[in-house]
Amino acid sequence: MAGSPRIALVTYDPGGEEHKDRDLPVLAGALREAGADAVAVPWDDPDADWAGFGLALIRSTWDYSWRAAEFTAWAGRCAKATRLVNPLDVVRWNADKRYLGQLARAGVPVVPTRYLAPGDPVELPADREYVVKPTSGAGARYAARHRAGEREAAVRQVERMHAEGFTAMVQPYLAAIDTDGERALQFFGGRLLHATVKGAVLAPGTPYDADKVAHPDVRPWEPTATELAVAERALAAVPGDPELLYARVDLVTGPDGEPVVMELELIEPNLFLYLHPDSVPRVVRAVLAAAG
To answer: What is the DSSP string of 237-248?
Structure first.
């Protein structure tokens, strides 16, 4: 259709396997019905002509975390060719989970986190259950939960990450995750879109390099006023006050019973539109507005 906005829904290449993004065909279809020329394009497609799109909307680039430097380099090229959302500065900032330290310094309640870069001594908690994971990761890849004082397996995990160039992060395991789960508040176009809750992802004794179910028992959730306030504080603390088309704030219950930020997903969060079909029209309107 002449004059239709051409939109790239940026994703990953499933390599002949079933695509894991259940929302992608739903969103693409809804955008087409609204008059847009929406196409799913892998971010690392060497033949993609990003300048041929009026908007590149990052959706499910779920393999990027193991190729973070390559991905951010692509984002830089893409942002020069067309409008990239979320913006390039946000992508660069959010690709490394050391942003949690910046949020904490801004007064946002976050899960306490220590970072172990390659070459740092491997200091691990001896008095509490804890989690080790990479600062560049998704879907609980390379993440593991260790019992108090459990050191040998955790050291091997950190050494493996360091050998591959990753910085490790160490966090206390918050026991309320096992009962309250993790809540994800989704924002689109600057407003709360919907929320979900999922069960605990990490079980004690599961090897860090084992496959995990990233979203066990995921279901709709009605966020509390306190959860919404914490999520909004986290978004307000993003450097540069950028215009975020989409965002997901993952919350867990801290030791004092109050919500704290576990992650702030500003690159490729799963929106769980299949659980919230009524949200699709709002997403479509916001995407079309961004496409101009």
So the answer is: TSTT----SEEE
Residues whose CB falls within 8 Å of the CB of residue 195, separated by 6 or more in sequence, listed in order: 183, 184, 185, 186, 220, 221, 222, 223, 227
Name the DSSP class of 18. Answer: P
pTM: 0.94
- Give the separation between CA 38 and CA 60, rounded to whole angstroms: 15
Which DSSP string do the residues of 109-174 spell out, in sequence order?
-B---EEE-TTS-----SSS-EEEEESS-STTTT-EEE-TT--HHHHHHHHHHHHTTPPEEEEE--
The one-letter amino acid code at 160 reads R
Digit-coded pLDDT (tens) for 86-120? 999 999 999 999 999 999 999 999 999 999 999 99
Rounded-to-integer distance, Cα 251 and Cα 258, Å: 10
